[in-house]
Amino acid sequence: MASTSPISPSSTLETPVEKTDQPNSQAHTDATLRKVPDVVKVRRSRSPPERNSRAGENRLRPAGDLINRITWDSKFNHNDYIIGFVDRFEGRLEITLDKWKKESTDEEFIPQHRVLYIRHVDGEIVWDRRRRIDAIFSSGNSAFRELAFLQ
């Protein structure tokens, strides 16, 4: 009979098999125990996900990545950038990056999924969700614009 010790993920359970009178049966002997694994491992393919090559899709970097890059990279002056976002009650609004609140506990916090665009004070759009423009990391449709010379 199987012991009553705790089962660990790598252990197996022993199940007794009934005794039968048929000599060719697998359960012919009463001492036969069958090992049954308690965990079944499923192997998943590690191939990359399929992409529609006709769509020419390139993932757009999230607004948070650009905000962090502009804030922490000395090449950019964070006072020169404006964030356009959607407010739930007032519609489309703009705020300068130096007034942007990242801390979710702040009363004036704006979730990053509400960001519509980021632009420079001179009017140049550096990130736009709808048009999939990213002039800082060259993700989204901006990557194709930069590689157009290869065609």
From TrEMBL:
Region of interest called Disordered, as start-end residue ranges on this chain: 1-60
Ranges of biased composition (kind: Basic and acidic residues): 31-60
One of the Pfam families matching this protein, by short name: MJ1316
Biased amino acid composition, Polar residues: 1-14
Domain MJ1316 RNA cyclic group end recognition: 60-129
Protein name: MJ1316 RNA cyclic group end recognition domain-containing protein
Native organism: Penicillium argentinense
